[in-house]
Amino acid sequence: xxxxxxxxxxxxxxxxxxxxxxxxxxxxxxxxxxxxxxxxxxxxxxxxxxxxxxxxxxxxxxxxxxxxxxxxxxxxxxxxxxxxxxxxxxxxxxxxxxxxxxxxxxxxxxxxxxxxxxxxxxxxxxxxxxxxxxxxxxxxxxxxxxxxxxxxxxxxxxxxxxxxxxxxxxxxxxxxxxxxxxxxxxxxxxxxxxxxxxxxxxxxxxxxxxxxxxxxxxxxxxxxxxxxxxxxxxxxxxxxxxxxxxxxxxxxxxxxxxxxxxxxxxxxxxxxxxxxxxxxxxxxxxxxxxxxxxxxxxxxxxxxxxxxxxxxxxxxxxxxxxxxxxxxxxxxxxxxxxxxxxxxxxxxxxxxxxxxxxxxxxxxxxxxxxxxxxxxxxxxxxxxxxxxxxxxxxxxxxxxxxxxxxxxxxxxxxxxxxxxxxxxxxxxxxxxxxxxxxxxxxxxxxxxxxxx
Length: 452
Prior knowledge:
single chain
């Protein structure tokens, strides 16, 4: 068998050939270097490359200015105040959903024809009404953002599933004495509804809140990057224009190119426009910084309230026989943890410490102790509206809500003092960059023709 039969084209592979003296690999690299020199050595070609570099810098400046314009809008008064409103609405939605859960679970404890059940029914409907109102109000704040609208739609769809589960549970448990088996099935539906709200609906509402608070946190960071990026690229382009002018003048022995002078003037105008557009940024950054610190305080208070609402609903589920996941001791420890009975976490005021102490001691005295003694009706009475534990929780929750609302107002006031976003930042910069790029093209073109 011959070499030709093994390989129809037995010529050496240049990529694999040795690179010693006289080898094809070295000759190939030499050809490439000569081609590169032929491209770069002629002066007109160098002029053209300088022009391409300058035009690319103008394009970079315009692109960065466009991103800066977007960041300026995100850090401007309109966007940050809408984000603050959306964040507050999302927190309120979470709270009212938890209120609905507590009312729905409490209804199973109250006697069918009692005033307590009537009040809990009213609390449940009022809570759902508030959630629906907040969903409608938030829909007008999305600003056409699909992601924000999708998050609201998700909560609305999940809310209908939850209310249907609760409705079914109430129907089955309407007459527990006459229909005990239906009441047991209704209890299962209630447990499923509460689990769905805690596992699906409340996390969706919390995600809305986290998205909006993240939007506020990112506004300051993105604004800083946009400020430094836009001014940095502008200064870089000015330096490149100065170097290009000197290079052309040295190579052609002629005066300054009018085209490049126009480009330089356009870039100086761009620099001035950016300075004017960003003149309010120090004030905006200060407002966003202060609001960021208050958002941390707001977050601590919200977490305290969410845990407290969960602790109250757990008490209702346990007293109604709907929570068999934990034993009595474990449930009591879970209550102390969620209620923050030690009040050691960040965010507690002196008044809140006093009130949470009253709530926790009331839970131990009127619910835990009565359950140990077998006085279940007395424990239920203490947990329902008008009872000692329910009253203590209401006082604590009112104080907690007042503190959350106070911080929320402070955040909103800070953000409403944020300056408005600069107008036409990206459009004006783009027009000036187009003028500059045209000046570069004319100036370089004239020098190339003169040299030839």
